[in-house]
Amino acid sequence: MLGKDTLYPIFLGAKILSEAAIVSTAADRLDSTLDEAAFIFQMPKDMTFDEVGVLVEGLTGAPDYDISIQGVNLADGKPDGTIIGSTGALWSPTADGFQWITLGNPLARSKNNLIAIVIEDGTTGTDPSGGNYVDLVSQAVQVGQNQMPYLHISADTGSTWTAAVNELPIIALRNSGTTTDVIGRPIEEPHALITLTTGVGHIIAQEFMLPVESASRVQVHGLQIHLAATNTDFDMGIFDGAGATVIATSRDKDARVGTATNSPLCFFTPTWLQTGVVYYAGLKQTDTGGNQAIYAHDCLTDDNLSAWPGYPNNNLAKYVSGWTPDVGGIAVGIALLVSAVDRRGIEMQHLEAGISR
To answer: 0.90 cut: is pTM over it?
Structure first.
């Protein structure tokens, strides 16, 4: 029926390409009236938005900034300096962390439109200086392709715009009509460690649902999980809504992880998963001992998880006597290995041809 051995990854939760891409961060300090920062990207869909989200740290003093949406100069790929739709607004950060900033007016943009989110010295209030500043936080990535589709550029002390190489911005836009429609990367903590109270049979896992439009069922062969140090035996597997095991591969003492992070990969007998059904991919404790832990993005609220595929079925979750979502948590680095799909029972399709509708 399959005829070949091709395996294709489907990423669950938040996709990462390397551990370094989630552990390391970079900061762009705005501590001068000549400092500017911009984030340029292509709209993934039509949206009317009125809020921009950024992650800040190191707030010192009480600086004031202007934030706006600008056009992009297609000759050089930089902000064109023209504020679109009276979106400019004064931003006076009051605390560290991820925060939403309300624009001067809602702005409607279409899919594929290029926009630039620009942050610069405020026209009123306290000027940025050595005693009044914030750091805008991005994730450091190993190769330039990992930052796509977002470009972070800055102009330090009046110089020309310069690309911040190998940085993946932590920025987002939110729909003006609802809090559950977000695009971008609304992250408070990129590399949060989510632990589960120790206990035999307890599970920590990423919730997911395979999309119905891709197929009627999907055949999986393997599972990879980005986890932390473990001190007890566990199963890596897929579990159902009642916590029952659908697929499990035992991990005994020889497979315990003694370092801070690890991404074990397990293979198992090919098993069909139904589309449109909620499953959980993660770790189940099988012996007494220490906690199990999975790395995740802490996004503060479940609404912010709408920025990732699978919402509203994309929380990291824990199972003790029933499933409990980890509010605002979405696992990083979990992938299913898939070899075939059943397209509504009409035909079998091997994944070298991709999943088509």
So the answer is: no
- Distance between CA 247 and CA 254 in Å, rounded? 20
Do residue 164 and residue 39 come from a single domain?
yes
Domain boundary among 185, 214, 247: 185
- 22 assigned to some structural domain: no
Counting the structural domains of the chain, the total is: 2
d(CA 143, CA 160): 23
CB atoms under 10 Å from CB of 242, counted, come to: 8
Task: Give the list of residues 6+ apart from residue 345 with CB closer than 8 angstroms, or none.
Answer: 216
Same-domain status, 128 and 202: no
Measure the CA–CA gap between 21 and 201, rounded to whole angstroms. Answer: 32
Final residue of a structural domain among 136, 167, 185: 185
Instruction: Give the residue from 94, 113, 91, 95 showing the smallest Cα distance to 104.
Output: 91
Torsion angle of C-alpha atoms 280, 281, 283, 286, degrees rounded to 10: 60
Structure tokens at 179: 């809090």
- CB-based contact 234:203 (threshold 8 Å): no
266: domain range? 8-16+191-353
- pLDDT tens digits for range 29-45: 999 999 999 999 999 99
- Tell me the per-residue pLDDT of 129-188, one tens digit each, with 9 for 90 and over: 999 999 999 887 765 556 667 788 777 666 688 877 778 889 999 999 999 999 999 999
